[in-house]
Sequence to fold (723 residues):
Amino acid sequence: MVSFNYLVHNKNKFQQGALVVLTTLLLLATFFIPPSYALFVSPPKDPMPFIQAQFPDATAISEKTPTKVGGYPIWTVRKNDDVLGYAFETNDIAKIPAYSGEPVNMLVAIDPQGAYLTAKVLEHHEPIILAGIPESKLWAFTDQYAGLSVRDRLKVGGNKNEGYVAIDGLSGATVTVMVMNVGITKAAKKVAQALAIIEKSNGIIQPISTIKTEVFSDANWTQLTGDGSIRKLYLDRNAVDDSFVGTAAEHVDEANADEKQNMFAEIYYTLIDIPTIGKNLFSAADYQWLTKPLQPGEHLIGVFGNGYSFKGSGYVRGGIFDRIQIHQQDNAISFRDLQHERVTDIFIAGAPQFQEMSVFKIEAHHEFDPGAEWAFELLVRRQTGPVDSLFNSFKGQYDMLDKYVDTPPAIMPEPELSLTQQVWQDKNVEVVVLITLLIVLLLILFFQDVLVRHPKFMHNLRHGFLVVTVVLIGWSWGGQLSIVNVFTFLQALMHDFSWDLFLLDPIIFILWCAAAVTMLLWGRAVYCGWLCPFGALQELVNVFGRFIKLPQLELPYAVHERLWAIKYLILLALFGISLDSLAMAEQFAEIEPFKTTFLLKFDREWPFIAWASLMILTSLVNRKTFCRYLCPLGAALSVPSKLSLFQWLKRRSECGQPCKTCAKECEIQAIQPNGEINMRECHYCLDCQVTYFNDEKCPPLKKLARKQRKITDEQIIAITNTD
Fold:
C-alpha cells in the first residue's frame, strides 16, 4: 500500500496524473446521463381493464355518459338490473395541476352508497416520481382509498382530527400526493352529488336545541292555540276535492255542492314534552307517565283530531300509521304502534271534544331538533279500484317559540382551505425557520466588512451555516432547487401561468424568491455559496479533505477557464430538449445529483448513486467540482449576474498586478489573473475579503504598514536628535 507520506512527498507527480484523470472525468460527464431504465413518463393507461378487474361480476359497463346534473362523464357498471358502481377519470371532472404543471389522471370507482372501491393512476408527468420513486409506491398510496367514503374529509398526513381522516403520504412526493388527494376527493364528491348519493351542504352546523324544562306557566286552550304553542291543520271538503282534480280519483267521494264548505279534517298538533304545553294538556300524573320513559334525544308529539281519521281505518296492532308523518328538513318520520299511546282525555280548560287523541314518540335516532321548524303531514287517500288508490298530502307548519327552548348559535365552520393553504399551514414551522435563516444570511451580507475582520469567527459562522443548509434545507426539507424548476417556470409562462403551481412547495418557493432577490442584488454567488444544499455539502466535504491533509488538485487556470463552458453547454442542451418535451428534459436533467442526494437519500438504482457519490467524493480533492463545471442550474443563475446592483467585494489597484494572493487562495478560482472577480463564478465565500482586511496577509496592507513603521521610526529619530 502506498503510504500517505509517499503521496505528500510526491505531491507534484500525483497532481499531474490526477489532473489528467479529473479533466477526463469532467469531459466525459458532459455526455454522461445515467441509464434511463429507471426514468420514464407514465404512458396513458386504458381504464377499461381496471374497471373490469374491479367489477368481475359485472354484466354490463355503459359507455362514458354525462350525468344529468353537472354533465360529468362516468361509466355505470351493472349486474343485470342492479347498479354495482360508477367509475370516472379525475381529469374529466377535477383537472388540478400537480408539481410538474400537468395533472395526474386517475381512475376512481365508487359504489351506489358513496364508498370508494378503487383509485388507480392512469397518467402522470411528475419529475420526482419519474426520477426514482417506483410506481408501486404511488399505487400503494391510491390503494388507501378503498373502503373510505366520499363523505369523509380526507387529509394527507397527520392524525385524525377536526373531522378529517388521515391517509399516509409518500416520502419524496408529498406535494404530488396532496394534489392527487384533492383531485380524487373533489371529483368523487361532484359525481356523488350529481347522482344524489350525497346532498350538497352549505357547511353551516346548527347544534340541536334543548327544551327549557324549568320553564312553566299556566295556560288554557285558547292561549296555547293563540300564541302558536298548539297548531291546527284544517281542511274543508272543497280543498280536498280540488287536490284530486285531473286525477283518476277526481270524482271519488266527491262532496255535493252544498257540502263543499263542510269540515273534512281538523287536526291539532304540538310537542308534548314542552312543560308549559304538556303539563297544561294533561294531569300531572298523565304527564309524568308519558314523559318519564323518554331517553335523551326522544320527544313526544300530540295529535288531536276530528273528521278524517289520522290513524287510518287500516291501522292494526303491529302496523304503521300510514296517514301521518313528521317532516324536519330532509328527515321524514313515520310511526308504528310501539311509538303510539292512545289518549282518552285532556284536562286543559277550553279544549274542544276530539274523536281521536294520540301521543307519538319520536325516537332518538331521528335526531329531531325541538327548536327547529317542522311540519305535520296528513295523507288523504282515495280508492280508484279494488287495489289501486291515489293520495294527496296536506301539511301544517310548526315554528317553535323561543321561550320554550335554548337554541345554540349556528356554527359557521371555516371555509375549507385550498390545497395551497393546506400545504403552507402544514409547513409553517419550516417556513418560519427558513425565513429566519434568510434574515441571518442578509445580516451576514450587510455586515460582512465587520465580520471578515475576525477570520476564525467568520469561518466558523460560515461552516455552521453550511451545515444547517445541508441538514435542514437539504435532507430534512428537500429544499434543493433544480434546473427542472426553471423549465417548469418557463413552460408556465408560455402557457397558462398560475402562482398556485409554484406555491405548492413553500420551501422551494421561498428559496426561489431568495435566489431571485440575492441574484438581483449580488448575483448568482449568494445562492450557490450559501443556500444550495449540494453546493454546501461539497464545500464541507472539501473542508474535511483539507482537514485530513489530502493533497488538493487545482487545474491550471487556462484549463479551468475552458471547463466553465461545460455547464453552459449542458444548460443549452437541456433547454433545447425542454422546448420539445419537458418530460424528456427532466430525464436528462438527472445530470444533477440533487434528487439522489436529498429527495431520495440514495434510495435508488446504483448508477444514480454512483454518479452522486463521484461528485461528492471528488470534492475531497477539488473544491465544488460539480458546481464549477457541470451544474446547469448554476449556469442559469449566472446568466443575469451582470445585472446585479451591488459590488460589495472590495478590490485594490494592486490586486492582480502585482499582488496575486487572493487569486491563489480562491479555492474555486473565481478571481482572474488580472485580479478581477468573475461574479458569474464567485460563490461569495468572503475568503478574499478576509485577506483584504488582514494586514498580516494582504501584501498592499503589509507594505503600507512597513511605510507607516518607517515614518514612525524616522519621526522618533528626528525628535531624539532635536533633544
